[in-house]
Amino acid sequence: MQMPSKEPESSSMTHEEEEEMLHDISKLQEQVQQMARSQKLTEAKINGVESKIKGMMDDLKTDLTNFLQEILMNGEKVVKETHDLNKRNVNHDSIDSNVGSKTHHIPKIDMRKFDGKDPATWI
Asked: Which residues contact 114 (CB under 8 A, 6 or more apart)?
């Protein structure tokens, strides 16, 4: 069985259509190039912003470190805080000593059972 041979269709594009297609391709290439430039510009801006943020964070870290060192070097603030903590601890100790049973330091007394019959227990 032999299939009938079919001749390939020839391109029926006119010269004007070819020029129009080349023009459209050229426009698309320009748009792609413009998008690539825009993307590079956006990436550059993002990198710039990231580096500014990193610089600000480094500055804040340095400022905070210097501030904390200044506070630690300034003895008055440290002494005051320590004094306040000691005062709070003393207050808690005095509260604890005034509340609750104070018999924990008294030795246990040996008491006889009281049944009411033994006159020595009454005395």
From this structure: 121
Kindly give, in sequence order, each residue whose CB lies less than 8 Å from that of residue 112, ignoring residues fewer than 6 positions away: 118, 121
pLDDT in tens, 86-104: 666 555 555 555 555 555 6
List, for residues 19-59, the tens digit of each pLDDT value: 999 999 999 999 999 999 999 999 999 999 999 999 999 99
25 Cα distance to chain centroid: 50
Return d(Cα 106, Cα 123) in angstroms, integer. Answer: 23
3-state secondary structure of 6: coil
Q: If you count them, how many residues does the chain have?
A: 123
